[in-house]
Automatic annotation (TrEMBL):
Protein name (record): GNAT family N-acetyltransferase
One example GO MF annotation: protein-N-terminal-alanine acetyltransferase activity
Stated family: Belongs to the acetyltransferase family. RimJ subfamily.
One CC-aspect GO term: cytoplasm
Keywords: Acyltransferase, Transferase
Organism listed in the record: Arthrobacter crusticola
Domain (N-acetyltransferase) ranges: 8-173
Cited InterPro entries: Acyl_CoA_acyltransferase, GNAT_dom, N-acetyltransferase
Gene3D superfamilies: 3.40.630.30
Source organism superkingdom: Bacteria
Length: 182
């Protein structure tokens, strides 16, 4: 990707280093994520979360990756809520370690996920929801070709309260789609 960071599929063996990453970034992520129990920040809590995701991966409704730098987890990027059929849609989520923000890693992670959604998963659309005051994520999505499609009132319970979110989408073009439409 960039800056010596690579994306790798989330595995059960990532629990300890993912717990370390979440612990290291607890304050950094708190304003942007749901309220978390203390257990979430432990290896056991992450192992439980990874095991829960494994069922969703098996069902084809989620694809999670860890962002690694020198063997250390420095973020995640995930496509969740994948719906097949005529919708072919997924929801994008990501975060980057506080020590590495502003270095293009978030943009590279989103570009990676867009490519995987289009070329590997065969999705037609990716959506993302961000807090209105998260200007850094707005810039990442803008650079990645997402367009704002509206505001969802009281959309997600983040940092302990229901908060509005700006909704974004990117329509994905499978290889050769433009030629088919012409």
């Amino acid at each position: 990707m960039t800056g010596g960071v690579e994306a790798a599929p989330l595995r059960s063996s990532d629990a300890e280093r993912l717990a370390a990453a979440y612990s290291r970034n607890r304050d950094h992520l708190a304003p942007w994520e749901p309220a978390r129990s203390d257990r979430f920040f432990t290896s056991a809590g992450q192992r439980e979360a990874i095991d829960a995701k494994a069922a969703l991966v098996e069902a084809g409704s989620e694809v999670p990756w860890v962002l690694l730098r020198n063997g250390q987890v420095v973020g995640t990027v995930t496509i969740t809520g994948i719906v097949r059929g005529p919708f072919l849609n997924g929801h994008l989520g990501y975060w980057v370690d506080s020590e590495l923000t502003g270095r293009g890693i978030g943009s590279a992670a989103v570009a990676f996920a867009v490519e995987a959604a289009q070329d590997v998963l065969g999705l037609h659309r990716l959506q993302a929801a961000i807090l209105p005051h998260n200007s850094a994520s707005q810039r990442v999505l803008d650079r990645a070709g997402f367009e704002e499609i509206g505001v969802a009132r009281a959309y997600l319970r983040i940092a302990g309260r229901w908060q509005d979110h700006r909704l974004y989408q990117r329509i994905l073009e499978p290889p050769g789609a433009a030629a088919v439409r012409e």
